[in-house]
Specification:
heterodimer; A: alpha+beta; Immunoglobulin-like; Cytochrome Bc1 Complex, Chain D, domain 2; seven-stranded mixed beta sheet; four-stranded mixed beta sheet; 8 helices; elongated; B: mainly alpha; Cytochrome C Oxidase, Chain A; two-stranded antiparallel sheet; 19 helices; 2 strands; disordered N terminus
C-alpha cells in the first residue's frame, strides 16, 4: 500500500501541461504549485472516461448495426445474465474509482495545507468587490480599465512570484467564493467565519509582458517589471453584479513586490489614494456623476445639507462621512433604505478614511460652484 | 381487440368499456368529469399537460438566458467614473424589459431572474414530478394489471396539491422577482429583500410540491405492494415499475426534510432564533446541508424513472430479455439508498475538510450501480432484433448523453478537481447532460413509446425522427461547449464574461435555439398525431408488459377482465405478444431456448 501511494504521489508530480488534450481542455495558463497535480488528476479521469465512452458507445453502435431487425426473424439467443461478467464490470470500475478518489485526496491536501514562509494577507469580500489587505495594513491596489471584461474597473492585486501567499478570507455580507481559475482552486468566503486560501506561483516566464507607467508617475520605478495576470472570479451567486465581481492577481518578481509593498501606499497624493479606495470599495453603490445607485451619489455631496429618514438635517462633513463609513445605519439619507451598506470598520483604517474624504473634496467629485444646487 | 370474457355479459354496453378519453356529454360535463376524476389515466394525462406547459415556460426562460449570453456586457461610452456617464451594451434582457442602459445592476437583475425562473420551474415542477406523475400515473396500474392506483382519491388530491404548488411557486417568483437561483442559498436569499420572506415563499412552494410527491409516492408504494396481478412476483415486474418504486421510496423519505427547513426558516424570521442567518448567530452553511439533504436524493428521483423507461424500451425494441434484470432492479434500490449519504458533495468548497473527504468517497459509491446499469443496457442489445424506432433512437440518445453526464460526474466527485470545476460551467454542462440528456430525453423516449397507448393514435415516425436529430444536435452544441467554458474558468450565473469566452458562448446559444426548434417540431408532430393520426394498434411494438394487453386507449377500467400473469415482462423468446399473430412472431426453437437458460 505504501508503495502504491508512492507511485501515485510520483504520478502527481508529473506536469500535465504537455499531455495530450491538456491545452484544449485547460489552456496554458495554469500557475500554482498544486494546479499541475490537479490537472494531472483531471487528465487521468478524462483519459479513463474517453476510453470507457468509446468502448461502450462503440459496442452500442456495433450491436445496433449488426443486430438490426430482420423482418420475420426472431432475436438470436444469448445468456440473460452472466455472473462472472457482471462481477467483473462491477469490480473494475470500483478499483478505478478508488484510484480516482486517492488521486483527488492527495491533490486536495496539497491545496488545503499551506506552505509556511512567504506572505500573509487578508481578503475581504463584499457585494461586489474584493479587497486585499496586506500585512502592513495597506489595501492599495491598482485599477485596470475594464473593457476586457467588466462594466466597472477591475482591481489589480500585486502578488510575489515563487512565494507562498496565504489569504485569510471573510465576507462582509452574503456568501462569495474566491476562484482563481489559473490556480484551479476556489474556496467559499463566508460571513461568519474565516476560510483560507493559499497559493504559490511558479517563476515568471521570459516572454511575459512588462509594466509601463507614464514618465512622471511615482510608479515609474516599476517600469520594465515582467508580470503575469490571473483572473479572480466570484463563484458563489451574490446578486445583481455577481458577474462584475472580478479582480486580477498580478504576479511580479519577489524583489519588485517588496519594493512595491514598501512604497506604493504613500507614492500617491491622498485624493488619488482615495479614488482608488472608492473604486475598490464604494463604486458599486455610490456614483460620483449624480446617477442613482443603491446609495446616494457623491456628486456635490461635500458640504451639502441632507435630510435624513428621521427628518433631521445633517451637513455632510468629515464627521458625518466617518460615521457613515464605520456605522452606516446611524443616519440614513431620506429616500434610501437602511441595512444596505455594511460597516467598513476594520476594513478601512483612519488613514484610508481620510484619503476617501480627500477624494470627496477633490474637483473630480465637486463640480464647479455654479452647478451646486441652492441650499 | 381481445375478445375475452368481459364479465359484463348482461348485454348492456357498460360505459366502463368505453375508452377513458370518450366524452360523456357536453363541454361542462366533460370539464367536470376531468376535474373530479379519480381515474389514474386522466390524472396522468393532466399531469402530462401541466408538466409540458411548465417545461415550455422554463424553456423560454432558458432561451432568454442563452440570448443574454450571446454577447458579454460591455461599457461602450463614458466610464461611469470621474463624472462621465456610462452606457453599457450587451444587456439584451435589460433592454427588452426597459432597464436603464446606464446602470448595469438593472440589466443584470433581469438575467438573474430569468435563470432563477428556469431553474426553479425545471427542477421543482418539471423534472422531479415529470416521469412518475405523468407516465408513472398512467402506466403503473396498467403494468401491474390493476384497475387503478391503491388510493385513487389521494391521487386526485395530490394532483391539486401539485397544481397549487406550481401556481404558488410561479406567482412567488413573478411577484417577488426572485433572483436567488433555484437553490435559494442563505444569507443572500434572506437578506436582500426588505421583508425577508421571499425564501420562505419559495421553500413553501417547494414543500407544497414535495407534499404532492409524498402523496404520489405513498400511493405508488402501496400500489406496487398490494395490487400486482395474480401470478406477478416482485421479479416479474417491468423495470419501469421497479424504478418508480425506488423513486417513490426516496420521495417519501426525503421530502419531509424540506418541510423541516421551512419550519426552521419561519422560526428564524418570526422568533429571531439564529439558525441560518449569521447576523443572529446562525450558520448559512447549515442551510446548504438541509437543502442538499433534500435536494440530492431528489436528483435520483429525477433520474431513476428515466432509467426505468430506458430499460423497458431497450428490451422491447430489441426484442431481447433485459440483461441482468436483477442487477438493474437492485442497482435502482442501491442508488436510492446511497442517494441519502452523498449530499455533501455539493459543498466541497465550503465544508470542513474531513466532511469533504468522506463525501467524496461516498459519492463514488453512486457511480458503481450507475455504471452497472449502462453495461446491462448495452449488453441487452447483443444479439437482439433492433429496430431504430423513435423511442429506441431516444433510448440510444439517452445512453450516449447519460454516459457523458455520468463520466463528467467523476471529476466533480474527485476532491482536487472539483475545487476548480465547482460552480463553473462544467457543472452546468454536467447536470444538463444528466437531467436533460437523462430525464427529459427518457421522458421523450417514453412519450413516443407509450403515445399509442396514451391517446390511441400513431404519430409520424419519419417526422418524429427529424425531431430526434434536431434535439440531439441542438443539445450537444448547447452543452458540450459548456464543458470547455467551465474548464477554462467561466463561472456559472454570470451575465457577462471576458472576451475569451465569447465564441463558445455564441455556439452554445446557437445550439439552444436548435434545441428549442426541435421541441417545437415534436410539439407539431404530436398535435398532428392527435388531429389526424392513424388509429394505433393495441400493441404496435410487440411488448409483453400488461399495459399492452389493454385497448389503445385503454377503457375506463383498464382491463375487461382481471389479467393473470402468464409470462415475464421480457420473455420475448417464448411468448407471442398480446394482440399479435403467431405467424408474425416467429419463436426460436423451444429446445434451444431451454438450453440457453442453463
Amino acid at each position: 500500500m505504501a508503495n502504491s501511494m508512492n507511485i501515485i504521489s510520483s504520478t502527481l508530480g508529473f506536469d500535465a501541461s504537455t499531455w495530450p488534450l491538456h491545452d484544449m481542455v485547460f489552456g496554458d495558463r495554469a500557475n500554482a504549485t498544486y494546479a499541475h497535480s490537479s490537472d494531472a488528476a483531471f487528465m487521468f479521469i478524462l483519459y479513463v472516461s474517453i476510453i470507457s465512452f468509446i468502448l461502450v458507445m462503440g459496442a452500442t453502435a456495433y450491436f445496433v448495426v449488426k443486430y438490426r431487425r430482420v423482418p420475420g426473424k426472431p432475436a438470436e439467443l444469448s445468456p440473460h445474465h452472466n455472473s462472472r461478467l457482471e462481477v467483473t464490470w462491477t469490480v473494475i470500475p470500483t478499483i478505478v474509482f478508488v484510484a480516482m478518489f486517492i488521486v483527488g485526496f492527495k491533490g486536495y491536501t496539497d491545496m488545503l495545507v499551506p506552505k509556511q514562509g512567504g506572505i500573509e494577507a487578508d481578503l475581504i469580500a463584499a457585494k461586489w468587490s474584493w479587497t486585499v489587505k496586506y500585512s502592513n495594513g495597506m489595501s492599495n491596489t491598482a485599477v485596470m480599465p475594464s473593457n476586457k471584461f467588466l462594466a466597472q474597473p477591475v482591481p489589480v492585486y500585486y502578488m510575489p512570484a515563487e512565494t507562498p501567499v496565504r489569504l485569510k478570507m471573510i465576507s462582509k455580507d452574503v456568501m462569495h467564493s474566491f476562484w482563481v481559475p489559473d490556480f484551479r482552486l476556489k474556496i467559499d468566503v463566508l460571513p461568519n467565519r474565516y476560510t483560507k486560501f493559499w497559493f504559490e506561483t511558479g517563476s515568471i516566464p521570459e516572454k511575459a509582458d512588462t509594466l509601463q507607467f507614464d514618465a512622471g508617475s511615482p510608479w515609474s520605478a516599476m517600469n520594465g517589471t515582467p508580470y503575469v495576470d490571473h483572473w479572480v472570479f466570484c463563484a458563489e451567486y451574490c446578486g445583481d453584479l455577481h458577474s462584475e465581481m472580478g479582480a486580477i492577481i498580478r504576479v511580479i518578481p519577489k524583489d519588485k513586490f517588496q519594493w512595491w509593498l514598501a512604497n506604493a501606499g504613500s507614492a500617491d497624493p491622498p485624493d488619488i489614494r482615495g479614488e482608488r479606495l472608492w473604486q475598490n470599495n464604494c463604486i458599486s453603490c455610490h456614483s460620483i456623476d449624480g446617477s442613482l445607485k443603491t446609495g446616494p451619489s457623491w456628486k456635490n455631496i461635500w458640504g451639502a445639507t441632507h435630510t435624513m429618514t428621521d427628518g433631521s438635517k445633517v451637513v455632510i462633513d468629515e464627521n458625518y462621512i466617518r460615521e457613515a463609513i464605520l456605522n452606516p445605519n446611524a443616519k440614513i439619507v431620506a429616500g434610501f433604505a437602511a441595512g444596505q451598506m455594511p460597516s467598513f470598520a476594520g476594513v478601512l483604517n483612519e488613514q484610508q478614511i481620510a484619503d476617501l474624504i480627500a477624494f470627496m473634496k477633490s474637483p473630480k467629485v465637486t463640480e464647479p460652484a455654479a452647478e451646486k444646487p441652492a441650499q | 381487440m381481445t375478445t375475452m370474457d368481459t364479465g359484463h355479459s348482461n348485454g348492456l354496453h357498460d360505459h366502463h368499456d368505453l375508452p377513458y378519453l370518450a366524452r360523456k356529454g357536453g363541454v361542462w360535463t366533460t370539464v367536470k368529469d376531468w376535474m373530479t376524476t379519480v381515474d389514474h389515466k386522466k390524472l396522468g394525462i393532466m399531469y402530462l399537460f401541466a408538466i409540458l406547459t411548465l417545461f415550455f415556460a422554463g424553456g423560454v426562460a432558458a432561451l432568454l438566458v442563452r440570448a443574454e449570453l450571446f454577447n458579454p456586457v460591455r461599457l461602450v461610452e463614458g466610464t461611469g467614473i470621474n463624472g462621465i456617464p456610462a452606457r453599457y451594451e450587451g444587456q439584451m434582457l435589460g433592454q427588452w424589459f426597459g432597464a436603464s442602459p446606464e446602470n448595469p445592476n438593472e440589466g443584470n437583475l433581469w438575467y438573474n431572474r430569468a435563470f432563477t425562473m428556469h431553474g426553479a420551474i425545471m427542477v421543482f415542477m418539471v423534472i422531479v414530478p415529470g416521469i412518475p406523475a405523468s407516465l408513472g400515473n398512467f402506466l403503473l396500474p396498467l403494468m401491474l394489471g390493476a384497475k387503478d392506483v391503491a388510493f385513487p382519491r389521494l391521487n386526485l388530491l395530490s394532483w391539486y396539491v401539485y397544481l397549487t404548488g406550481s401556481i404558488f411557486g410561479v406567482l412567488a417568483i413573478l411577484y417577488h422577482g426572485v433572483d436567488t437561483g433555484w437553490t435559494f442559498y442563505t444569507p443572500y436569499s434572506t437578506t436582500t429583500d426588505a421583508g425577508h420572506w421571499r425564501v420562505v415563499y419559495m421553500i413553501l412552494a417547494a414543500f407544497i410540491l414535495g407534499f404532492s410527491s409524498i402523496l404520489t409516492g405513498l400511493n405508488f408504494v402501496v400500489t406496487v405492494h398490494k395490487l400486482r396481478a395474480p401470478g406477478m412476483g416482485w421479479f416479474d415486474m417491468p423495470l419501469f415499475v421497479w424504478a418508480i418504486y425506488a423513486t417513490a421510496v426516496i420521495q417519501v423519505l426525503a421530502t419531509p426534510v424540506i418541510g423541516i427547513t421551512l419550519l426552521l426558516l419561519i422560526f428564524e424570521r418570526v422568533f429571531r432564533v439564529g439558525i441560518f442567518d449569521p447576523a443572529l448567530g446562525g450558520d448559512p452553511v447549515l442551510y446548504q446541508h438541509f437543502f442538499w439533504f433534500y435536494s440530492h436524493p431528489v436528483v435520483y428521483v429525477m433520474i431513476l424513472p428515466g432509467m426505468g423507461v430506458v430499460s423497458d424500451i431497450i428490451a422491447v425494441h430489441s426484442r431481447k430479455p433485459i440483461f441482468g434484470y436483477r442487477a438493474i432492479a437492485f442497482a435502482s434500490l442501491g442508488i436510492a439508498g446511497v442517494a441519502f449519504i452523498v449530499w455533501g458533495h455539493h459543498m466541497f468548497a465550503s465544508m470542513s475538510e474531513i466532511g469533504s473527504v468522506v463525501f467524496s468517497a461516498l459519492t463514488f459509491l453512486v457511480a458503481i450501480p450507475t455504471a452497472v446499469k449502462i453495461f446491462n443496457w448495452v449488453s441487452t442489445l447483443y444479439k437482439g432484433s433492433i429496430a431504430l424506432t423513435t423511442p429506441m433512437l431516444y433510448a440510444l440518445v439517452f445512453l450516449f448523453l447519460f454516459a457523458i453526464g455520468g463520466l463528467t460526474g467523476l471529476p466533480l466527485a474527485t476532491l482536487s478537481t472539483d475545487l476548480h470545476l465547482h460552480d463553473s460551467y462544467f457543472v452546468v454542462a454536467h447536470f444538463h447532460y444528466v437531467m436533460f440528456g437523462g430525464t427529459i430525453i427518457a421522458l421523450l423516449a417514453g412519450l413516443h413509446h407509450w403515445w399509442p397507448k396514451l391517446f390511441g393514435r400513431s404519430y409520424s415516425e419519419p417526422a418524429a425522427k427529424i425531431g430526434v436529430f434536431l434535439v440531439f444536435v441542438g443539445f450537444n452544441l448547447t452543452f458540450f461547449t459548456q464543458f470547455f467554458l467551465g474548464t477554462h474558468g467561466m463561472p456559472r450565473r454570470y451575465a457577462s464574461y471576458p472576451d475569451e469566452f465569447t465564441m463558445l458562448h455564441q455556439w452554445s446559444t446557437v445550439g439552444s435555439f436548435i434545441l428549442g426548434l426541435g421541441f417545437f417540431w415534436h410539439l407539431l408532430v404530436f398535435i398532428h398525431s392527435l388531429a389526424v393520426g392513424e388509429r394505433a394498434k393495441e400493441n404496435p411494438w410487440g411488448a409483453l408488459t400488461l399495459e399492452w394487453e389493454a385497448d389503445s386507449p385503454p377503457s375506463e377500467h383498464n382491463f375487461s377482465h382481471e389479467p393473470v400473469l402468464k409470462h415475464g415482462p421480457y420473455d420475448f423468446e417464448t411468448t407471442v405478444p398480446p394482440h399479435w399473430d403467431a405467424k408474425d412472431w416467429p419463436l426460436p426453437d423451444p429446445a434451444a431456448v431451454a438450453a440457453n437458460r442453463h
